[in-house]
């Protein structure tokens, strides 16, 4: 389907893929059609892609869930989901989550280029990325609680990992908004820049990410991503094993 039909498009520039939410007239509010398209993107990526940049057209990254769709009575609406058997409803939500979780893939580094509002599903999409470059005008909010809902697009664990349990609870339970300065202070931002410098900052970061050996970067991401679940001894073992693979590969003795 076309970007006009789904509200999201995928473009390539060598090893960089860009996912763009392209519904600027509704501040890139998200729909199940967008999530299905984003899930499909993970299957369409060429093997040489190393970095995925996620961005939104216009003045906002994403204002969150499109309530005109979710609040209606058709496919993907709250009303339809509520009529499904419990397991079927959970399975449907798992399909939605897949639009976000592929951005965690070990062979990619994902970068969210965030400007303006990133609310609810928009906040969770930014959290799904490995790195977040924020414009100074960013407003984050985990607003699901204001609808009587919970964040369900794979954002809760990522938020706890970044800011800790108590801060994550406060953010999610109040649904309050935070600006870029606070997001930077509590560990949500990789970089904060003036709005006019967002694109350049993302390009510079991408260049830096691509400068290193691809296999070394993949190993580094795996080491860091799994560190929280390992003991010190287990992490040290993982480092030794990863370095052994790198040494053998560089010497031409890898598998």
From TrEMBL:
Short name of one Pfam family: ECH_1
Gene Ontology MF terms in the entry: isomerase activity
InterPro entries from the UniProt entry: ClpP/crotonase-like_dom_sf, Ech1-like, Enoyl-CoA_hyd/isom_CS, Enoyl-CoA_hydra/iso
Key words, A-Z: Isomerase
Family annotation (SUPFAM superfamilies): ClpP/crotonase
Region Disordered, annotated ranges: 232-255
Family affiliation: Belongs to the enoyl-CoA hydratase/isomerase family.
Protein name: Enoyl-CoA hydratase/isomerase family protein
Organism in which the protein naturally occurs: Micromonospora musae
Lineage: Bacteria, Bacillati, Actinomycetota, Actinomycetes, Micromonosporales
